[in-house]
Structures are given as C-alpha cells and as structure tokens.
Design goal:
single chain; alpha/beta; hydrolase; globular; 15 strands; 350 residues; eight-stranded mixed sheet; Rossmann fold; 10 helices; three-stranded mixed sheet; GMP Synthetase, Chain A, domain 3
Length: 350
Amino acid sequence: MHDALMAALRTVNDPELHRDLVSLGMIEAAELGGGVARVKVNLTTPACPLKGKIEGDVREALLKVPGVQDVVVTFGAMVRAPSQPALPGVKHVVLVGSGKGGVGKSSVAVNLAASLARDGAKVGLLDADVYGPSVAHMMGQGAARITANEERKMLPIEAHGVKFLSMANLSPAGQALVWRGPMLHSAIQQFLKDAAWGQLDYLIVDLPPGTGDVQLSLTQTVQVTGAVIVTTPQDVALIDAARAIDMFKKASVPVLGIVENMSYFVAPDTGHTYDLFGRGGSRKLGEQFPLLGEVPIDTDVRQDSDQGTPVVLAHPDRPAAAVLTQVARNLAGQISIRSLSSLPDQLTVV
C-alpha cells in the first residue's frame, strides 16, 4: 500500500517548483492504517505561501487510492541550501535595497525577518546601513551593546526570534560615522565573517539607499541568493529603483522581487481606498520581476517601529501586517525556486 500512496503522491506537484513532491524529496512518511492515509510533507520553507494548496492537492490525490477513506497531512520544513552556501551555517543571504531613501526599506526588512522567524525559519538580520542604522531601534534594542564570545566573534543580539547586528549597537547613539570606502568594506567583512551567526536559513541584509560602497562590498564578499527592491509608486522612486536593479544585474545578483511600499491608504472610518502616490507604478519596472506585494500606508507600522516591535507581530491583523506577512512568504517561495536549480534531478525519498 505504501507504493500505491507514493504513486498517487507523484501526481502532486509543488505549485511553485513545478515538480512532484516525491522527486523533490518532500515526502518524509506515507502510511495507511484503518482506512486513514497519514502523510508527512517536508516543505522547502516553513514560510511556504502555498501550503494550503499542497495540503488540498495531497488529500485529493490520496482519496483516489483504493482503501483510503480519510487523509491526515502533517508538515515539516527544511530550507535547502544552494550548491554554494553564502556563509558557514548560513544558507541564504538576501539583500533588501532601494535606489533612494525614504521608501520604508528598513521597515520592510525588519518585518520580513520577523515574519519569516514567526513562521519557523532561523533568521538573521544585518543592518548594513552603516551611516543611518535604524534596525536596532525598530527591534527594540537600541540600548543593547554587542559582545563577543571566547573565540572573539561578535554575538548577534536576539529579539523577536531574530538574530541581528547593527552599527547602532557599537557606536554611541547620535554619533555620526565619518568613514571612507575601505573602512566600510572592513566593517561589512566583520559583520558577515567575524560574527557568530550560527545556523541560519535566511540572513536578511538591510542595505543603505543608493548604489555605493556597501552594496559593492556585500556582493563581492559573499554568495548572495538574491535581492528585494523596495520602492514607492511615484515615478521618481521608480527611476531610482531601476538604477538599483541595474546595479544588481551588473553584480550578477538576481532580483527576487519588488515590494511596493506605501502603495495605497485605506481610510479607517469609511474603508475607502485612496491611491495617494499612484498605486501600481512598480509594475512599470518590468514583468520579469515578481511583485511580492503592495503594502498600504498604515500608521501602526510607524508606531510599532518606534516602540520596537515589528507590526507583523504587534498588530498581525492590520492590513499592512497581513500584506507584509504574505510578502515574506512570497519571498521564501522565490528563494525555494532559486534553490531548485542546485538540486539533483532525483532526491532520496521514503
């Protein structure tokens, strides 16, 4: 009967990877007892955006097997590393960038990290905006200081299930850093390679605005899985976002998707939607990049950031939080698609 169950599961494709669950090695167990088929599916990410569809497709396929009267599906998850992991213990490095400041890039990066961690992934967050670090404040750890272990490696600070490092936790509050390019490169090297990140599924990197030294240092230092571009709908923001995309293209960093932030506003008293900045403009960047989500303007995002708790955790039912959660899951799906190219054609299965 095990063979019959596995044969049925070979007809079920992962809706993003477009290969069947068995050849992808996603079936950990499949057994039948008392008319009930029990299956454990190991997803390629705990933040799988199409988990519900997979469960429905598995149930539908197994109910066609003679003797199966009911189906119980349970899930695990294992984020697969590419053929060349980014850093020891770190499977994927994802850059969050923008062509200009003021588009909410850091807010998006913090909420992506918090959402992925809440879904069960092991997540790190690096604040690479050396001149204007804000991650520590948004994570509620502005006063914390970075320490080192016995091996003299920096110990990331932990908050909301996320390990993070920020220059704000090394330098006195309000002190300006006047550094040249080589000093920036050295700082980025230390944050990446002289830190005890441990085992991470995703290391989210909040970049400074623009296309300068920090971006170049990162792409030259580690194997980057891809980049997320944050923009707002206005033409001037889109022009700058296009420059960021061109920079990543020249650095051979895939663009995993676009996040259109401050896309629209929903009036709390009437529920009416207002496109204050011309919603949907990010689609002009080209159909070749997935639109991960359109995040509405929401005062809770700002208030929660000021209070040190990402909105996806503080107010998960708010419209912006719901979209940011889906953005994180869509991003995880895009990373899984990228990882597929490094997988063998057939994996060991049960």
